[in-house]
Automatic annotation (TrEMBL):
<keyword id="KW-0472">Membrane</keyword>
<keyword id="KW-1133">Transmembrane helix</keyword>
<keyword id="KW-0812">Transmembrane</keyword>
<protein>
    <recommendedName>
        <fullName>CTP synthetase</fullName>
    </recommendedName>
</protein>
<feature type="transmembrane region" description="Helical">
    <location>
        <begin position="34"/>
        <end position="54"/>
    </location>
</feature>
Length: 59
């Protein structure tokens, strides 16, 4: 399951980080800090998402 988790993480992490950046930009934030914060929040959210997907696929 660890390999599946890492594979899914390589897909979900950049996707959710990109969503965080798009949300920051769409809300009118053009400074660096909100954009980086949005990417970081998306990256952190990718961990449990990838874990849940891997758990569902492996069972």
């Amino acid at each position: 399951m660890t390999r599946l988790f890492l594979l899914l993480l390589s897909i979900t992490l950049p996707t959710l980080a990109g969503v965080g950046v798009v949300v920051a930009l769409a809300s009118g934030q053009v400074a660096v800090q909100p954009i980086v914060l949005g990417a970081a929040i998306g990256a952190v959210l990718a961990l449990p998402v990838a874990w849940m997907i891997a758990r569902q696929l492996s069972s």
